[in-house]
Amino acid sequence: MSPWSETAAALFAGLQPPLQRLFRTREPVLLAASSATGFAEAAIRNGVPRRLLVAGGGFFAEWLAGIGEACGKEVVRARVPAGRAVEPDDLERALTRVRVDAVALVHSETSTGALAPLEALARVVHERSDALLLVDAVTSVGALPVEPDVWGLDFTFTGSQKALALPPGLALGVASPRLLERARGLTDRGWYFDLLKYAEAARTARPTQTPALSLVYALERQLGRIEAEGGVEARWRRHRAMLERLERWVAERGELAFLAPAGRRSWSVSALRPPPRLGVGALVRELARRGFAVTGGLGELEHEVLRIGHMGDLTPAHLDALLDELDGLLRV
Length: 332
Ligand SMILES: *Cc1c(COP(=O)(O)O)cnc(C)c1O
Prior knowledge:
The protein is of the alpha/beta class. The protein is about 45% helix and about 15% strand. The strands form 3 sheets. A 7-stranded mixed beta sheet has the order 1-9-8-7-4-2-3, with helices on both faces. A hairpin with a 4-residue loop joins β5 (about 110) and β6. The termini are far apart. Pyridoxal-5'-phosphate binds next to α2.
């Protein structure tokens, strides 16, 4: 007999309505004890029989392509320079060149701060092909508009530790009926990341393996706080206000520059080029001494950009305090 209790079943069933409001979906929200990487692998194993197009530029676009290759898929790239977002034209050209089973892309590229115009990209994918669209929404769900049902996203996933401001260890995702239909026909879905099992678990409030209960309780608590703030839309507004605050500050200082162009900047994370006289490493160290956690770039951008996260439970007041310190450091 399974030791699954009524209490746990009630906990899982009760999570669905606020999770569906967070993800803006009528589909069940799938939960796994894994970091977001698990659901990236799941998206590919359950959605790609053979060929995958990865569109974008930056550390996490490369990461998606690497997962596709490690899962034995044929990966085709539509690369854009780091800092630029993939545009509908880029995607249209790539889809004309090659027939693919799915397109994967990163909505908010955490390594560059570039935000892909996801609604327009989804339109291109569905008008120009019958490919599924798999979306890394790790730093977008909960921070800025993502509409899986309305835009036709076939898998939309995130992890607990970024925009949701929870401890790491949970992956959350939404699968379209098309993706689950595709998965039914694939024989190498594996076991742990078989999305059909997660969909059944969400429907019946009975996980197929031991859930990370402590994290699930934390999620329940955080969903309550999100609803108390005014729901996901209030969260979007707060994130947008932080980006605008940072844009104004950068414009006033004139010494730093966003890597991503205006209109294509993530509301949750920014990558800034500091002036040549100030090294990224020194800025990160000095800010850490003052109690602020910012970081350098990822991969080849390591020494090029300063990355500032303005997501989760952070507020414009937190950002102001950081900018005051940065002002001091820039003055020397
Ligand atoms: C952090 C991050 C990931 C990886 O998530 P894990 O939870 O570490 O597996 C993937 N994509 C993006 C855009 C991220 O920011």
